[in-house]
Amino acid sequence: MSTTPRPVIGIFGAGKVGIALARLAVDTGYTVHIASSGTAADTAGVTRYFAPGALAADGHDLPALADILIIAVPLRRFRELPLGAMAGHIVIDVMNYWPPIDGTLPDFETADRPTSAIVRDALPASARLVKSFNHLCYHQLEELPRPAGASDRVSLAVAGNDCAAVETVAAFVDDLGFDPVPSGSLEESNMLEANSGVFGHPRPASTAPHIGHRPRRVGQSTPCGQRSGGFARTSGSAARR
Ligand SMILES: NC(=O)c1ccc[n+]([C@@H]2O[C@H](COP(=O)([O-])OP(=O)(O)OC[C@H]3O[C@@H](n4cnc5c(N)ncnc54)[C@H](OP(=O)(O)O)[C@@H]3O)[C@@H](O)[C@H]2O)c1
Q1: What is the pLDDT of residues 77-113, one digit of tens each?
Q2: Which end of the chain is more exposed for a tag (fewer CB within 10 A), N or C?
Q3: Which atom of ligand 1 is nearest to the CA of 133?
Q4: Is 25 in the pocket of ligand 1 (CB under 6 A)?
């Protein structure tokens, strides 16, 4: 049995997705700190009822408390976060550009790049951004976790440029009850965005080539997790569900 300590999770955003992920991670045995735009006391008022066991924090304290940071705030507000303090962290980008909610954001509207590539460029160079959890709805994230090997276990894309960070996030995804599917780099992550065919459509990994395993052009580097056709199964998968 592995004795590797689990990473501590820090979640920016105590809304629909932040609370869903906090509940899942706490249930799976992770230590979770979570912050909203208010004070830790404000957030505690939410977590007490909606994510018992998650530890409310002030957003500026979150990077010092956690190993893996999750950004689960509206995209229009991510620049308010303590981005500089994310240096050296694995950061999971759960965000989507959703104009009915975000309004029109010129830097995302006019850019011919995936949103996560723009977010990555706003972080310190040593922060390792991975996109995941964004293409399922918050209630699907809560309802669909299954034990490893279950025939109806659904897949979650894991996209990033740093293979070690992608592998770490894949293990977290697996622990939370989903099959992680290697989905290429951040520059390719437009296939996971809100206007893509995968958004809100959960599918088992066996039928999920739509979020990964795509053929590579000659000369392109091998993307994370695709050397062996997928991620190695971790030992701590959510066996209770
Ligand atoms: N809803 C879904 O099903 C879903 C699924 C996948 C991905 N997403 C993406 O996930 C992100 C969050 O969506 P959501 O539906 O969870 O939004 P939401 O319910 O509106 O919650 C947003 C949360 O972000 C917090 N926040 C805003 N600014 C902050 C700041 N500067 N520091 C810390 N926290 C801050 C808000 O806190 P206050 O209330 O204190 O302002 C609130 O707790 C969006 O980018 C969305 O596209 C959503």
Answers
A1: 999 999 999 999 999 999 999 998 899 999 998 888 9
A2: N
A3: 6
A4: no
